[in-house]
Amino acid sequence: MTLMRSALPELPEDPTPEQIGAWVELAELCQTPDFRTAVRRMAEEQAEEPSQQDVSGLHDGLNQAMRERIDEAVSAGILPASAETAPLADSLGGLYGHAFECAGDGDLRRWLLARLQMTVDPHAKRYWQLLATINGWPASPTLAPVYTWFTTVLCRASTAAAMS
Predict the structure, then answer these.
(1) Which stretches of the chain score pLDDT less than 70?
(2) How many CB atoms within 10 Å of residue 100?
(3) Exposed, middle or buried, 146 (CB in 10 Å: 0-12/13-18/19+)?
(4) CB neighbour burial string for 112-126, b if at least 16 within 10 angstroms, e if fewer
(5) Looking at residue 160, what is its pLDDT?
(6) How many helices and strands (H and E) does the chain possess?
(7) pLDDT tens, 96-130?
(8) Is the distance from CB of 2 to CB of 56 less than 8 angstroms?
């Protein structure tokens, strides 16, 4: 919950037209049940995170590692449904397991899949975009393609594990 609590919209005293527009859109989105459900799910997930580490830095580090390793795989022409991705799935899964103190947990892949799928939710994505605009933060590159690629890898690895 630390990340959600530290990332609140703060409209400046002299907002730009873009910040006002983002504020209004955020207020409108807060009225929709799907948006509220997505944001509540993000907050609940963060409240249950087992790690006591600095959550913001933790997420940044994991995202960077994931982006770098998946970019390397994509550059090498490795498709997410390929058997060649098994070591990558194990490696990145291990990073998440270690960071969230659940390494060796039999449900790690299921937990990670749920987490990644929540992250690519369009409502969650839009929330973070609006928050960045309102707060005057630099726009961060979307991780949706990286998460989607990794989700495919994890699904393939889970299916292969279930069949063996």
Answers:
(1) 1-6, 46-58, 101-106, 160-164
(2) 20
(3) buried
(4) bbebbebbbbebbbb
(5) 67
(6) 8, 0
(7) 777 776 645 557 777 777 777 777 778 878 888 89
(8) yes
Type of residue at 9: P
Which H, E and C letters describe 42-80, residue by residue? HHHHHHCCCCCCCHHHHHHHHHHHHHHHHHHHHHCCCCC
Cα gap 141→7, rounded to integer Å:
17
Note the pLDDT of residue 25. Answer: 96
Question: What are the distances in angstroms from CA 11 to CA 14, 24, 73, 153?
Answer: 8, 11, 40, 39
- SS3 of 123-136: HHHHHHHHHHHHHC
